[in-house]
Amino acid sequence: MNDELSGAIEEAAAIVKNARHVVALVGAGLSAESGVPTFRGPEGLWTKHGEPDLRDYDRFVEDPKRWWEMRISRQSRFGEFVEALDRAQPNAGHLALREMEELGYLKHIITQNIDNLHQLAGSAAITEIHGNRTKLRCVACAARWPLDEFPIEELPPQCPLCGGVVKGDTVMFGEPIPRDALDECSNQTWQCDCMLLIGTSAVVYPAAGFPIDVKGMGGHLIEVNPNETPLTRHADVILRSLAGEALPKLVQRLREMAAEGERHA
Ligand SMILES: [Zn+2]
Fold first, then answer.
1. Distance 158 CA to ligand 1 centre (A)
2. Rounded to an integer, what distance in angstroms lies between the CA atom of residue 12 and that of residue 63?
3. Does 130 participate in catalysis according to the annotation?
4. Hey, how many other C-beta atoms are within 10 angstroms of the C-beta on 53?
5. CA of 166 to the centre of ligand 1 (A)
């Protein structure tokens, strides 16, 4: 480990240890370390295949039955994305976040990713701003079900609780972020006095506002990202590294500090 990174890990560990309510804000960079393609950037899906249809959600609302027929029948032009998602496994960064939660240092994960990898890693407290590709959701009451636990007998499927239309949980272009997820994000941000910014440049709202709010309330920001981002100038500590490298080292340092504390007690 280079000196700069080890110094930053030391600082980050001290902040996390003394914080009351640590929240991780996670973006596509963490999933990219698991082989999930990103949308933007030179190898991004949008760069290669063109920008997405921003009327996706309107089309769904206009004719949900047709949308479902397409979903079931079509060869998605994002087939490579779907295949990569099916293959993706949690990486060392996901596992380190799970460990931080188990040790009591991490209270919540707010993720912009839809890939279910935090759940696969074993994390419990998760809010998914953009939904989860392995679930379905009622647009009326926001009830959610794992895909394989919801028998689809008619199109569009109807919510057994309220009769509303059911769609994939993944938030579509033009679709509002589900209210319950937004509320939980506000709740977490309000309590947060240390936010880990992992693999996200947080240029897209609402996520872009959370770190600024935390900072505005006197909290600390720790950036974990191999690249500089628009958030870098707001960060108190910068771990300029892949999450899969930096986060396990952060957890290791937290464990060492806890052991040292016990020896002195
Ligand atoms: Zn419902």
1. 8
2. 50
3. yes
4. 12
5. 8
Neighbour count for residue 203 (Cβ, 10 Å):
12
3-state secondary structure the chain: CCHHHHHHHHHHHHHHHHCCCEEEEECHHHHHCCCCCCCCCCCCHHHHHCCCCCCHHHHHHHCHHHHHHHHHHCCCCCHHHHHHHHHCCCCHHHHHHHHHHHCCCCCEEEECCCCCHHHHHCCCCEEECCCCCCEEEECCCCCEEEHHHCCCCCCCCECCCCCCEEEECCCCCCCCCCHHHHHHHHHHHHHCCEEEEECCCCCCCCCCHHHHHHHHCCCEEEEECCCCCCCHHHCCEEECCCHHHHHHHHHHHHHHHHHHHHHHC
Using the mean position of ligand 1's atoms as its centre, give its distance from the Cα of residue 146 in Å.
15
Question: Does residue 250 carry a pLDDT above 70?
Answer: yes
Residue 89 has pLDDT above 90, yes or no: yes
Distance separating alpha carbons of residues 247 and 253, to the nearest angstrom = 10
- For the stretch 225-245, pLDDT in tens is 999 999 999 999 999 999 999
Task: Determine the Cα–Cα distance for residues 145 and 76; give it in Å rounded to an integer.
Answer: 23
Longest CA–CA separation in the chain, Å: 66
What's the confidence (pLDDT) of residue 37? 79
* Residue recorded with tokens 């998914």: 128
pTM, two decimal places:
0.93
pLDDT greater than 90 at residue 160 = yes
- Catalytic residue, candidates 21, 130, 220, 264: 130
Q: What is the pLDDT of residue 77?
A: 57
Q: Is the peptide bond before 156 cis (omega within 30 degrees of 0)?
A: yes
Instruction: Compute the distance from residue 179 Cα to the ligand 1 centre, in Å.
Output: 14
Residue with tokens 């996901």: 94
